[in-house]
């Protein structure tokens, strides 16, 4: 607390505003920083196609190809949302590494890879419900996916691991993802240790604590920006058990 005679710093006070109907509202001073409320962008996209495919993943593949062709940075980046068993959510960006077809070994799904000891993996193992979002802002497009996340088999994870750059392979061993560390020096020291363990010319095996998840879609929603905020939204929802058909409906923006 300031002592006697010390001037208090000036703080802009919230001012009450009186309305004719007797309701009082508070007019708060403008906060410091950019005026994000004033940011505006007109959405002038072409919208969704008139003839939608029967399988939403076909349209997702088309839009992903469009994002790659348009030169968007990290076009396969997607926001992965997970939650603990008691409902606390978290979200982060991960990279899509495959949209596979249904096989005898498992259902169709969207695949990404991670450390199985990371926060996202711990949450998915306790609560496999997940949501994905592809935020293709510059194309005025967005795709949301909801579904169950299942671990990818070890042989499939190892096969993908062998395609990664060597530095990324070593990094997977060096980083105890989501664990607290003392500083970057600790991380770089671990990387040096794994470099010495697998010197140049030796194969780096896939860690047992590292692998993939396949998000099996139950809901897929496509959003396309249109003028006057009258955006296009179409939802595909499974009609029954996984592998069943899709119910398609248009949603208000």
Radius of gyration: 24 Å
The DSSP helix count reads: 5
By secondary-structure content and strand pairing, the structural class works out as alpha+beta
The second-level CATH architecture of the largest domain is Roll
The tally of domains stands at 2
The first-level CATH class of the largest domain is given as Mainly Beta
**Low-pLDDT ranges:** 7-12
Give average pLDDT, whole number. 88
Question: How is the CATH topology of the largest domain named?
Answer: Pnp Oxidase, Chain A
Strand percent estimate: 25-35%
Kindly, what is the distance between the CA atoms of the first and last residues, rounded to a whole number of angstroms? 51 Å
Please provide a written account of the structure.
- The protein is of the alpha+beta class and 253 residues long.
- The chain folds into two domains: 41-162 and 209-250, Pnp Oxidase, Chain A, CATH 2.30.110.10; 163-205, no CATH class.
- It has helices at residues 56-69, 119-126, 154-161, 166-174, 184-197; strands spanning 15-18, 24-27, 77-83, 89-95, 98-100, 109-115, 129-136, 141-151, 210-224, 232-238, 246-250.
- The strands form two sheets. Strands 3, 4, 5, 6, 7, 8, 9, 10 and 11 form a nine-stranded antiparallel beta sheet that branches.
- The chain is globular, with a radius of gyration of 24 Å.
- The model is unreliable at 7-12 (pLDDT under 50).
């Amino acid at each position: 607390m300031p002592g006697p005679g010390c001037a208090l710093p000036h703080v802009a006070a919230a001012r009450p505003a009186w309305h004719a109907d007797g309701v009082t509202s508070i007019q708060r001073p403008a906060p410091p920083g950019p005026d994000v409320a004033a940011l505006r962008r007109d959405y002038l996209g072409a919208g969704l196609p008139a003839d939608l495919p029967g399988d939403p993943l076909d349209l997702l593949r088309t839009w992903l190809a469009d994002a790659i062709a348009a030169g968007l940075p990290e076009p396969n980046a997607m926001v992965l949302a997970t939650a603990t068993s008691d409902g606390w959510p978290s979200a982060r960006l991960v990279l899509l590494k495959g949209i596979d077809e249904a096989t005898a070994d498992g259902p169709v799904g969207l695949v990404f890879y991670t450390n199985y000891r990371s926060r996202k993996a711990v949450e998915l193992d306790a609560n496999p419900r997940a949501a994905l979002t592809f935020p293709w802002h510059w194309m005025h497009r967005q795709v949301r996916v909801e579904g169950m996340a299942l671990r990818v088999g070890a042989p499939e994870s190892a096969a993908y691991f062998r395609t990664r750059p060597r530095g990324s392979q070593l990094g997977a061993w060096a980083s105890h993802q989501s664990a607290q560390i003392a500083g970057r020096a600790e991380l770089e020291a671990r990387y040096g240790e794994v470099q010495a363990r697998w010197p140049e010319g030796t194969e780096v095996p896939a860690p047992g604590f590292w692998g993939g998840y396949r998000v099996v879609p139950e809901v897929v929603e496509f959003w396309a920006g249109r003028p006057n905020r009258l955006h296009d939204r179409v939802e595909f929802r499974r009609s029954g058990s996984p592998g069943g058909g899709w119910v398609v409906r248009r949603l208000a923006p």
